[in-house]
Amino acid sequence: MTTEYEIKFLQYPDNVIQTIQELGGTQIFPKTLFKRVMFDTEEMKTKRAWLRLRDEGKKITCTYKQVVADGTIEGVKEIEVVVDNFDEQKELLEQVGLRSRNYQENYREEWELNGVKIDMDTWPIVGTYIEVEGNSEEEVRKVCSMLDLPYEDGIFDTTDVIYKQTTGVDMLTLDTLAFDNVFQNL
Question: Are 175 and 185 in contact (CB under 8 A)?
């Protein structure tokens, strides 16, 4: 499994996109609706692991994720593959015994600066936060500094933890978390 070196910022400078552009960063894709189904088993839950099937607009990924340490940039390990059919992959995962936990939507706009991904993620109710992800902690720290994102203000938690802290809602207990029905589930 590979280590996911990422940090999230709930607060960020208003001109962060302009700064990325001025520093030579490029937009990888514009604001795009992401749709995902989360899967697990009882055994995976005890390992703090899950499987995510995600339609990213131009590609579909299936990713195994596992939290190995809380509160660190190296806290999540993952294995990701690209698949070609969301519905067939969902059926396959269910047929091998994985439990479809819930459906989630968010919007993502992705930029790249010095080989580091900068995602603007927008979730129902929570709003938009920045996620900075690179191949090493050093790369991530450098880009955070370039964008005036104080590393010590960053968050290393998963989105579900951030969601619960900011809204009081455990998004993992919702059957559906989508922009068109978010208030029906609360």
Answer: yes
d(CA 150, CA 168): 25
* pLDDT tens-place string over residues 106-133: 999 999 999 999 999 999 989 999 999 9
Among residues 18, 5, 3, the alpha carbon closest in space to that of 116 is found at 5
Burial class (CB in 10 A: 0-12, 13-18, 19+), 96: exposed
pTM greater than 0.85 (yes/no): yes
Please indicate, yes or no, if residue 122 is contained in any of the structural domains.
Answer: yes
Q: Which two tokens mark 91?
A: 């059926």
182 in any annotated domain: no
Domains contained in the chain, number: 1
- In whole angstroms, give the CA distance from residue 133 to residue 115: 9
Report the DSSP beta bridge partners of residue 154. Answer: none
Q: For residue 155, what are the domain limits? A: 2-175
CA 164 – CA 118 distance, rounded (Å): 23
CATH number of residue 38's parent domain: 2.40.320.10
pLDDT reading at 155 higher than 60 = yes
Q: Is residue 183 part of a domain?
A: no
Largest CA distance in the chain: 49
